[in-house]
Write a structure and sequence with these properties.
The chain is built from 24 helices and 21 strands. Bound molecules: 2-acetamido-2-deoxy-beta-D-glucopyranose (7 copies). Keywords: Signal.
Length: 701
């Protein structure tokens, strides 16, 4: 991870921000303390880049190096994959290498694919002859660049559940900032004892704030997902293992430290494996936690590569755990495993002088690199790529059919549900098997960590549907024939001659919305057309994704004063507070309003909603806008007493304080006025019962 700082320093010296620079300065101070010369290290790093056996190896060379890392050299035979984790020796090199494999998979993403959020390459790995064998991905977490940074894998044959944390990614500057955040969090703030209640209140308890921030950020989604999975695999023969490398190792340590304070999870936690873990906190902090890990039996295995620099840096006075843990030192030239007495054992990496430390093999476990080259081991790149492209195409086609195209493709649709066997017969999906379709349906998650699809078993087979966002275009043909439906012909004619029609009083709102979207798809929707279509009787209007001009917006509020359900999702930048106020005042009956991705609205709009809609507003979606403050959201929730669903998923200004106020407001409501609040950091039995795994159901129409 630190390597990347240097890469950046070398490659983008001109682009280093003052913030990063200050942090680098902190690092330099520290390297001085270790008697390492920053500039020497830079040069060393540059040289090592060229020399490292982990760069530019051929697939054959990687495979050979990797195979020779295993003492018995038989990783392809798959013989050990189904040994239950509990029957393996925690500190056996083979067991450690299995964990390294799980760890390596988190890096495979994004290095191979253009679509890093897609976890299919990891899923694909489960089909390969890896030590870890056959597993499924049960939950995933993505960073804000949509790149995988943690996942939970379930390995049924091996009877284990694994939580894996990614380390720094070269292209993610945020990771580097986190790593470099050299502030300390001290227990006197009470913050630490909240998360790690078993820590004694000693004044020496503190940790590096960068790692703590990372831990805090994902704590709730991880625990939520984990509890669900532990419940699903409740048999005590299933073990639960936490794994992490580099930044991910610190994060794994903190997560595990959090878990040991939670009885239900602690009783299931079998082991913690870290690789190349940087210094994390004070002796008092890391030693108390390690003691807890290793009670009643040893569970913590810290793997350190002999010459790796990273385990030597962290906040000032931060140390490696000293007691009860055991460390393996690896020599990457000739693989040697060694037991050590805690992090300060001078016979181990602590005894290596700074000028012999390097970053080049920070990712090494023996001759095996946990970075992206591992993905190539799993076979030839081309195959993986072909597979990825195929999966990507499958994802897009499934989304299209299950959300929009099913009826048009001639499928029977009942509240979105479609028979899987019928789905597999659609020509667009003909190259995929039913199992592949179901696999994609079961493992596809939106960026909100919600499942994209649902499936259920019925007496006559499996049925699937899109969990949200369904807007079917009607089948233009009769059944399986090529005879077009009258309605379709009529709509086409109407759309082509839209100027000749007057919709005033026309009763079928579904058709009106259909006409609007058809004309939009044809690229012919102007404000004037819109004006012609809208009518005073309309109660539902869906303008999702339709770019509105001033006169278009005016048409909505002048022509449709009786609207009850309105979606203005992503309607463009003309929609500002001023126009929104007009709309709010002139359409006084609105109950359900989607303002997501209306990026130019601010608190003024929220205050107008509070003022004019205090009696009628039931559903409100405000995601995709960074401008709303916590205060205005609090005013809205207290003012709109009937609001039942508020979606502020990604509002960055909802701090814990704000969320706590919202929870208090929600709890103070009577049962018939209960409110659900959707925010990515909010999980609460009363106001956010199913978050973040719930289906986002607040949709207009
Ligand atoms: C990788 O190795 C090949 C063959 O050994 C060499 O031609 C090529 O220049 C190397 N590429 C890099 C980026 O070092
Ligand atoms: C993988 O494990 C699942 C669940 O135990 C099992 O149904 C499946 O047959 C296994 N696949 C392989 C290739 O072993
Ligand atoms: C690695 O092992 C070889 C062979 O035992 C030894 O010569 C070398 O010094 C070792 N290197 C380190 C860094 O321990
Ligand atoms: C690991 O670091 C040592 C010391 O800098 C270096 O001699 C060795 O080549 C490195 N090994 C790998 C695999 O990069
Ligand atoms: C309503 O919106 C208008 C236009 O942006 C703004 O001037 C006014 O202050 C808002 N009203 C309230 C109560 O905030
Ligand atoms: C909301 O949060 C963003 C990101 O943290 C920040 O840039 C912005 O200034 C905040 N806006 C307000 C109105 O507080
Ligand atoms: C009116 C206002 O402050 N709009 C800002 C809302 O936030 C976006 C960025 O997310 C800015 O581009 C807008 O200018």
């Amino acid at each position: 991870m630190w390597a990347y700082i240097l890469v950046c320093l070398v490659l983008c010296t001109n682009g280093v921000s003052p913030k990063l620079f200050r942090k680098l300065h902190g690092l330099e101070t520290e390297l001085n303390r270790l008697k390492c010369d920053m500039h020497d290290l830079l040069n060393t790093y540059k040289n090592e880049m060229g020399k490292s056996p982990f760069r530019n190896r051929s697939v054959d060379a990687i495979t050979a190096a990797w195979q020779s890392t295993f003492p018995d050299g038989n990783y392809r035979t798959n013989t050990k994959n189904s040994i239950p984790f509990r029957q393996m020796n925690l500190r056996d090199p083979d067991t450690i290498l299995r964990m390294a494999e799980y760890q390596a998979m988190v890096y495979c993403k994004s290095n191979i694919l253009n679509s890093p959020s897609d976890i299919s390459s990891i899923v694909k790995m489960s089909g390969k002859n890896l030590r870890v064998g056959n597993f499924t991905i049960a939950a995933t977490g993505f960073d804000k660049y949509n790149v995988l940074y943690w996942y939970i894998a379930v390995n049924i044959p091996q009877q284990s559940i694994l939580l894996v944390h990614r380390g720094t990614r070269s292209s993610n500057r945020n990771d580097v900032y986190d790593d470099l955040n050299r502030g300390r969090i001290h227990n006197s703030h009470g913050q630490l004892s909240g998360d790690f209640p078993y820590l004694l209140q000693s004044k020496d308890v503190y940790l590096d704030s960068g790692f703590y921030t990372r831990f805090q950020h994902e704590k709730i989604p991880i625990v939520t997902a984990l509890r669900k999975i532990l419940q699903q695999y409740s048999s005590p023969s299933f073990s639960f293992v936490v794994v992490g490398h580099s930044l991910g190792a610190s994060w794994a340590f903190l997560n595990a430290a959090y878990f040991v304070g939670l009885n239900d999870i602690n009783s299931r936690l079998s082991a913690i494996y870290t690789f190349g873990q940087p210094l994390l906190g004070s002796a008092s902090f890391v030693n108390q936690i390690t003691t807890k890990f290793d009670t009643p039996s040893q569970r913590y295995v810290r793997t350190v590569n002999g010459n790796d620099l990273v385990p030597h840096i962290g906040c000032e006075e931060c140390v490696q755990p000293q007691y009860s843990n055991e460390k393996w030192v690896m020599n990457t030239t000739q693989v040697i495993w060694k037991d050590c007495n805690g992090g300060a054992d001078p016979q181990c990496s602590s005894g290596v002088p700074c000028n012999q430390l390097s970053w080049a093999n920070h990712s090494a476990v023996g001759r095996f690199s946990m970075r992206s080259e591992f993905c190539r081991v799993a076979n030839n790149m081309q195959l993986v790529k072909q597979y990825e492209r195929r999966q990507l195409k499958l994802g897009k086609r499934l989304a299209y059919i299950l959300r929009y195209g099913a009826e048009k493709e001639g499928l029977q649709v009942d509240e979105g549900w479609i028979s899987l066997s019928a789905l597999a017969k659609v020509p667009l999906l003909s190259e995929y098997t039913e199992n592949e379709l179901l696999g994609e349906i079961q493992t596809s998650y939106s960026y909100r960590k919600t499942p994209r699809y649902q499936w259920e078993r019925r007496p006559n087979g499996i049925y699937v549907r899109a969990a949200y966002g369904r807007k079917f275009e009607r089948n233009p043909f009769h059944g399986q024939t090529q005879i077009r439906r009258l309605l379709d012909l009529a709509l086409e004619y109407v759309c082509q001659n839209i100027d000749k029609y007057d919709f005033e009083g026309f009763p079928d709102e579904f058709l009106i919305n259909e006409v609007i979207h058809r004309i939009k798809r044809n690229g012919k929707l102007t404000s004037r057309t819109l004006q012609g279509i809208l009518s005073g009787t309309m109660e539902h209007l869906d303008l999702d994704g339709i770019y509105l001009t001033e006169s278009g917006i005016r048409a909505v509020y002048t022509k449709c004063p009786n609207l009850r359900v309105l979606s203005l999702k992503g309607c463009g930048y003309i929609l500002n507070d001023h126009y929104c106020e007009q709309l709010i005042r002139k359409c006084p009956l609105i109950e359900s309003l989607d303002l997501s991705y209306c990026r130019h609205l601010t608190d003024r709009t929220l205050d107008n909603l509070t003022k004019y809609y205090s009696e009628n507003l039931l559903h409100l979606i405000l995601s995709g806008n960074q401008n709303y403050t916590g205060d205005a959201i609090v005013r809205l929730v207290s003012g709109c007493q009937h609001l039942r669903q508020l979606d502020i998923w990604d509002n960055p200004n909802c701090t814990n304080d704000v969320l706590n106020i919202l929870i208090a407001l929600g709890k103070s409501r009577s049962e018939d006025r209960a409110i659900t609040i959707v925010h990515k950091h909010l999980q609460h039995p009363a106001v956010a019962p199913a978050n973040p795994w719930a289906v986002v159901s607040a949709k207009t129409v």
